[in-house]
Amino acid sequence: MRVETGVAPVNGAELYYERAGVGDPVVLVHAGIADSRMWDPQFEVLAAEYTVVRCDLRGYGRTPAVKGPFSHHEDVIALLRYLGLERAALVGCSMGGKTVIDAALAAPDAVAALVPIASALSGYKAAAPDPPQWQAAVDAYGRGDLEQASEYEVQIWVDGPTRRPDVVPAAIRDLVREMNLIPLAVPDELVDERPLEPPAAGRLHELTVPTLVVIGELDQPAPIAQCRFIAEQVASAETVTLRTAHLPNLERPEEFNDVLRGFLRRALGTSAPPPASQ
User: How, if at all, do strands 25-29 and 51-55 pair?
Assistant: First the structure.
């Protein structure tokens, strides 16, 4: 598989991206505890049918943070334009889910379909208590112990509220801990994200594109509540629940890939590729 790698000059930042495949564009936007590596189980699979793009948002992975106000959704829209993608399906997990929803509201003509996964939502506060490790994570971050802060966040989001750390494969926990250390190390003065105005929570009725909401059954209560709210408010939404915590695509990649490809084929009007000749 040929993979194009590059750096896109976007709103004063330089976003690292990768692009592969041919066909309708599908853009993957990572969670706030991850970077574009979280899509390793999907990237090559999707490139067999689509032009697939993944990027590191500013302050994540290989994209440095820069001083000044920004909006992740504006960066994603600008990346589409830089790459010459007039209209794309946007797939986002957690913070990435919030980002792709905001992008669809800000630039509806640029979005062909939406897949928010374990999604956050701008302007919505779920009536759910903080996870028990949350304050410990905040305290560890405050004293500069980023390794411990990242471990607590792995417990919150990767293990979820009902499982012991030894239940989730160590490779997944280690990857997320490693990815999460990068944004944790970004100085606070370089994090000046400006929200969508008005926020998405009161505007979901504006979304008319095919939408698939993916819920992790073992996730924290807040993202489950946010996903259910999105599914209720978006008239075109389908919902699927997978037995995972916050990162379904990493925990159950084969099942997730089947669900995602099925949705994209319906939403984008494409069909499964013919079997390879023997």
Answer: parallel
Give all domains of the chain, ordered by start, each with its CATH number: 3-125+190-268 (3.40.50.1820)
Which tokens is 258 given?
């089947």
Q: What percent of the chain has pLDDT over 90?
A: 94
| 89 in Cβ contact with 112 (< 8 Å) | yes
Per the document, the length of the chain is: 278
pLDDT in tens, 188-240: 999 999 999 999 999 999 999 999 999 999 999 999 999 999 999 999 999 99
Give yes or no for a contact between 107 and 83, defined as CB atoms under 8 angstroms apart: no
Question: Residue 190 corresponds to which tokens in the numbers above?
Answer: 């370089």
pTM higher than the cut 0.90: yes
Sheet holding 237-242, edge to edge: 3-10, 13-20, 51-55, 25-29, 88-93, 111-117, 211-216, 237-242
